[in-house]
Every structure is written in C-alpha cells, then in structure tokens.
C-alpha cells in the first residue's frame, strides 16, 4: 500500500483503566445515538481487503473491538486517496489504516497503534544475500514500490547512490522481477510479501525467502476526522477496548491466525 499513516494518550482511558484492581476496565458502552458506523479502507491484503475472509485481519480486529462496545462496523473499500478525503468530508466515521504523517495530524486524530509492521528484503534462495547495514548493498539493484519510503536511512542510502532503487507499482511485479533476476532483492512488509507470494505466485514459494534483519519497523493507526462531533467519543471507545484486547491476549490471537493462514484467499489467483 503506497501511503503513509500520533498516537493519542487519553486521560479518560488512563483513569478508567487505573480505577480497576485488575487493570482491565469494565467494558465501556457507547452513548452515541448510532449503533453502527461506516469505516473506509483501501485494499492492503492481508491486513485489509474486500475479497479476504473477515475482510482481512485489521478489519476483523476493528469490527470485534467496536462490537464489544455495542457498535457494528461496515467497511467500504475505496482507492486510498478517496477513502482519506471522503472520510474527512463526513461520509465515514473513520478510515483504516494509516502510518503516521505530520500533514495528516491537521485533519485526523490517531488511535493507539493498531498494527505493527516489519519490512524486510525478499530474495531468491539460490542467491547469496546478506546485509548488516546499507553499505552491504553497494552495487545491487533493489526493488521497491512506487512513491513509497522505507525509512530515512534507506532513503539516505538511495540518495547517496549506494544501491540502485528500481520501483514498480505492485509486490507481484517485484516477485516476478526477482524470479527473473532483474533485481537482487526487494523491500516489502513481511506479511504482505508472503500473502502475495502464496496467493499470486505459489509456484515461486519454494524459491524465495526473506532476510530476518528488518529494514523498518512501523506502526499503523485508525484515523478519526477531527471535524466530526462523534470522533472524540469513538476514539475513546476504540482505544479503551483495543487496550483491553492487548492485555487479555485476544489481540495477539488475530495475528496468530494471520500466521496460520486464516486470512488467505480460499483459492490462489494464478494469473
């Protein structure tokens, strides 16, 4: 997903959590008039996708968090730019999910961190690929996504010409180029990479792996428009129940399911 996504610490949430002897607060019920909300999202499998089971692991988690507060969530999948602008213009209660961006703070309030992402290098198993710092990539051709930043250190190495960055529009294209030897490795979020490999190119799955050293560790957030009256309460509700999910182990179960393939397409797309 070629888009970039301030964690807010709410005094209300903190006081409510601290008021219980076992740290976990009594589930908070919404005082909103509505019992259902619409949330916009972009396609970003396996985290978000209209075609996946539960509409992806992030959508599944968001729905269940709000369900515990008595609020039903309906997702609408749109191009990322439209999801962002339509939500700010009042069509949706929130938009999922986004990395932190200084510019977006002017328009949106960020939830607590919903996703933790790990970006790594994918490479062919029969090629020797080892790296400890970006100088180790000198002279290589590294694949990436269009208009995407993999962090300031990576961007600095590109600007200094340590390696050549060759960018295309999709992860699937990068896997094809990697298999054909047109690039030496490419950068991608680990879950997105393996989801694409297993569903789009299962014939390549035994020939490609990833390097364990992360390029970038990053968080993503649910965004609530700061011009909407209900956003403050929805944000409080979401953050409270998200924290409860993390404390009692339910949060981790969704991502264990992701590792086990619970959010894969039922039939691989072999195009």
TrEMBL record:
The keyword Signal applies. Residues 41-254 form the Solute-binding protein family 3/N-terminal domain. The keyword Nucleotide-binding does not apply. Pfam families: SBP_bac_3 (PF00497). Keywords: Signal. InterPro entries: Solute-binding_3/MltF_N. Residues 1-25 form the signal peptide. SUPFAM superfamilies: Periplasmic binding protein-like II. Belongs to the bacterial solute-binding protein 3 family. This is Transporter substrate-binding domain-containing protein. It comes from Pseudoalteromonas prydzensis. The lineage of its organism: Bacteria, Pseudomonadati, Pseudomonadota, Gammaproteobacteria, Alteromonadales.
